Amino acid sequence: MNDATRVLVLNSGSSSVKYQLIDMAGGDRLATGLVERIGEPAGALVHRAGDARRTVEERYPDHTAALKAVAEELRRDGLGLDSPELAAIGHRVVHGGTRFTQPTRIDDAVLEALRGLVPLAPLHNPANITGIEVARALRPDLPQIAVFDTAFHATMPEHAWRYAIDKETADANSVRRYGFHGTSHEYVSRRTAELLGRAPESVNVIVLHLGNGASASAVRGGVCVDTSMGLTPLEGLVMGTRSGDLDPAVIFHLHREAGLGVDEIDALLNRRSGLIGLCGANDMREIARRMGEGDADAQLAFDIYVHRLKKYVGSYFAVLGRVDAVAFTAGVGENSIAVREAVAGRLSVLGIELDSVRNGVRGDSPRLVSAPTSRVAVAVVPTDEEYEIARQAFALLRQD
Ligand code: ADP
Q: Which residue out of 209, 238, 284 has the highest number of ligand 1 atoms within 8 Å of its CB and is therefore the one to mutate?
């Protein structure tokens, strides 16, 4: 182990790469950026490092070209991939199946195993794998570490992760609840305990990660005991474009009666449902604006979204028995005063008393929005998945 303390975090999507270079010595963000529209005629790279901000508009035919461009931007700021201070590259990987429940150093065998998991996450894992392959080619000698979205949920007891379907069929096809957004749930639950001034082991938290995708988790003493997403990120809460929970028979019905094929139903439930399916908009800001103008569809979409959230909060109270805090995070959770008010308001029966003044204050640091007399704390905790990936990758290096 040398004294290199920087970790480059890569989050490779199908047509984008997000990156952050973080110095784990003090947690400083040395550079952040994004390459968009990879493979399309007009791509763009936005790079920030200190006061420098550069936008490059160019065609990036593939992830190799995109990552080479990222490496070049980092080099221009003296932060190149060949820097001796770079300790590792941490990769976000969406699905780790049952095999990868910890941050994992990537070698050929791990990469092969990740390829084997593609059927479980066909939309996400292939891009994550491409990012890893390109990064390994650029710096073959550097530790490359995979951090999985599913990993934090691996502690769920079997009665929470197993679906009540024929066991043999489920097991033969790896059908179970895995859960996603794990790095966010882990980070936010830990930060919530810190905000309360208590050890994570002594705190029970319900985390509501409300971004475009959305999921809830029940965390007992720092350990996940249940979560709302399932085999895929489709289950659970109402999301920007995904339905979340529904009667599985809806699928048979649409197939038999409406003649929709399985791919059409997949697209319907993943891309044309949730808020966008209900009111034509998936951005909570637009929905709030339209509600203000008396738009009935926007109001109904909001009400369905909130109703589902309330059901999960109530059921996770029952699962945990004792709840110390409900934590809101991600784009909607961090910013929508109205969603927090609607979910946590009028829950005094559960010991939740929101403070409407505190809830109305905007900010970007973790904060309490409950009344001082509230038995259960309500917190807004901005998520930081990149930092959590860097932290876990760096911790793994230290163990080696
Ligand atoms: P993801 O990472 O899942 O793409 P984010 O966590 O960035 O998503 O959340 C994006 C969503 O956050 C937007 O679609 C929008 O609904 C919501 N959002 C962002 N800013 C605000 C705001 N000021 N008020 C209400 N909602 C917001």
A: 284
